[in-house]
Design a protein that fits this description.
Elements: E1 11-16, H1 25-30, E2 42-52, H2 57-77, E3 86-92, E4 95-103, E5 109-118, H3 122-152
Parallel strand pairs: 2-3
Antiparallel strand pairs: 1-2, 3-4, 4-5
Length: about 160
């Protein structure tokens, strides 16, 4: 089933409206590049956080999977979804998990657990921050260039 509810992640990281060149502004207004955060000037999310205090990691994982599927569908709008990965972090208390989400060759949504950190351990906290920094750098360089190239090809 392709029907997905509109996600409302606790934290969403994407490309700022102001980052796009002026000639892309009308295209961004035409496209629905993020149903939840467009009003905030955020487009094409590539990282979301779903945090649960003591409510259960499983619930956070399910919400992140739905959010990731929506992120990939947004990328499909500009034909940028193939061979593209998006990321999610799920948390419950001190536990933080990193997930990679993509579509396989048959266009099915896939999620891969990449790592788990316990924030009460200094080495885990440092490794988590390093992983987030790498994703942010990737998002601002590789992902952003790919999206910009794809938006260039959009016809209204």
């Amino acid at each position: 089933p392709e029907s997905l509810s509109t996600p409302k992640p606790d934290i969403c990281v994407g490309l700022a409206h102001e980052w796009f060149p002026t000639n892309h502004q009308s295209t961004l207004n035409y496209l629905k590049t993020d149903p939840h955060t467009s009003a905030m000037g955020l487009h094409f999310p590539f990282l979301i956080f779903e945090a649960k205090g003591n409510a259960g990691l499983f619930g956070a994982q399910n919400q992140a999977a739905v959010g990731a599927a929506c992120m990939l569908r947004i990328l499909d709008l500009i034909r940028c979804g193939e061979d593209t990965v998006v990321w999610s972090v799920t948390t419950e208390g001190p536990i933080h998990e990193l997930w990679a989400h993509y579509r396989d060759r048959k266009k099915r949504y896939q999620s891969v657990h990449m790592n788990l950190w316990r924030m009460t351990k200094m080495e885990h906290a440092k490794a988590f921050v390093e992983a987030m920094a790498k994703i942010m750098i990737w998002g601002s360089r590789v992902f952003a260039k790919r999206v910009l190239h794809a938006v260039d090809g959009v016809r209204q």
